[in-house]
Every structure is written in C-alpha cells, then in structure tokens.
Write a structure and sequence with these properties.
By secondary structure, this protein is α/β, with parallel strands linked by helices. It has eleven helices and twelve strands. The protein binds iron/sulfur cluster. Iron/sulfur cluster (SF4) binds next to loops.
Amino acid sequence: MEFSEVKSLLNDLKIIASYGKEDIAMVYLAEIKNGALIEFVESIQPPIPREKKWVLIVSTMDGCPVGCMMCDAGGYYKRKLTEEEILAQILFLTNKRYGRSIPVEKFKIQFARVGEPALNDNVLGVLEKLPHMLDAPGLMPSISTVAPVGREGWFERLLEIKNKYYIGRFQMQFSIHSTSKEQRDRIIPVKKWGFEEITKYGERFVQKGDRKVTLNFALAQENEVDASVIMEYFDPEKFLIKITPVNPTYRAVENRLNSDVDERGLVLKHRKFVEELEKSGYEVIISVGELEENKIGSNCGQYVQRHLAAQRKLENSYVFVRKE
Ligand code: SF4
C-alpha cells in the first residue's frame, strides 16, 4: 500500500478525544466520515514492554445489534464499519508508535471493541489485507464471536483466510458465558450456534500448529456452569477455557450481574467448575487483566460513549473519562 493510500484512510478518522494512561491503556474516540463516533483501544500489560506484547482492540460496527447482558456497547446499532474504517483504526495506532514495520513479538489485534465481527464481511477483507499492509512478524489477529446463525459462509471464509495467512498465530474465541441453553439465550439474545455447531467448526479450525479455540466465560455468580456439559461437547486437545470477570459496566449493574472472579483472579462461587475442568485435562485460563483498565474504560464490555451519556455515573469505572 502506498503512503498516499494510508494517508487517505487516516483522513477518514478524526480523533476527538482520548482517555487513559500511555503505559497501560488508551481509549480513542474518533469521528468518521458521516459523523458517526467509534472507539478503539491500545493496551500493554506492565511490566511486559510494548516490544514484547502490544494489543489493539478495534471496533467493527457503530454500535452493536446483539445486546449482550453485560456489555455497554449493545445499547444501540447504526451500521457496519467499512474495511477502510476498520483499517484506519489500526493504522492510526501503528503510525503513532512504529510506522509500517512493527517490531513487536506478540502484536495482537482484537476485533472486539464494539460490534459482533461475524456480522460484518468487511472484517474478512481487513484480515486478508493486513499481511500485505504491515511488516509485522508478530501479528496475531483475534476474533471473538457469539457465533450468530446464518453466517456459516463468513465462518468458512475465515477458516480459509486463517489457513492462508495465519496458521499458528490466530486466536479464535467463542463467547459462551453459560452452559445452560436458556440462560445463554438470555445473556446473548440472538439466534446463535449451539455447542454442536461450535465444536464441529472448532475441530476443523484447529489444524497442526494452530492455537486451541477459546471458549470464553465472562463469569457472573448468577451464571450456570456445568463442567460435564463442556466435557460432553469439547475436546480438551482442541479447546481451552478462558474465564474473565464481568467488568463494571452499566449493563452489568442494571442486570444485577456480580462478577465471580475477584481482583486477585480467584474464582469464587464456581471454583468447582474450574477444578473439574482442570482435572479432566482442560487448560483453564483465568484472565483478570489490569484493574486500572476499568477506570480507564478500556476493558471488555466497556464503552466510553455509554458512560458519557449516563445520567447517573458509575463510581469505580470510567473515572479517567471526563466530559469535555
Ligand atoms: S459483547 Fe460483543 S456481541 Fe455482545 S453486545 Fe457487546 S459488542 Fe455486541
């Protein structure tokens, strides 16, 4: 890609505010072509230096039509972002830090700030273009999806793209949250794949040298989780389990969800679930991240624009965000 093309992509993006700390995480709020607002994030994990690990979290939609129970981004939905609008978020950050050569050992790009990536074909175009646009040997894309039905063609193309460009360095993640079908339907209120479909796809996705597919639980004490259901469907050789806290979002408070993972990374009510999975050979990752990120508003499920619009503000999160 020529310099002029990069410049014109960046012209589509006008940064109107940024929040956070450069040595942990920054949230950027940008205006794009037709006046829509999008946000994206960069973060590092102290004490690991940026050259070892750098994570970008970009939006794929303006709002999100899914409306998960704990996510502040699901409050409204306007449209899908174009390839250019997604690429512009990435290039803004790479330009800011390095230019086109990214000497970072683990350079993760998560398509996970706002929007369900599987509902947007442009995400696939971005994944195809990135290896041509950036000189980034450590590049590792990460797709986190609720697996909406009717998007089987999207998932097939994703598998082809992974096999072509990203063998061994692609993170595929399904958001599960509950092993009860009824409760999963309440937490993620759209039609989505059942565990049969997820396991069939995951089995095909993980090929020699690939990373395991992640099953993610944003674990609330109110969630129902049963290790025997996981064992019935998912092979521990192909799937790993990731447990994350329910972050302090407006939606989590409204829906009375209490995180089952505490600040030290201990699982409280569902400890047995974790132990049973580990005993059965599953790799279980408890991922708490930086607590400071809750205050910045850069953590999963947080959405600065929801905070700016709120009449009554949460006390312990988004504290770096101030209305101009
Ligand atoms: S968690 Fe993802 S899919 Fe669910 S509402 Fe938020 S952005 Fe949309």
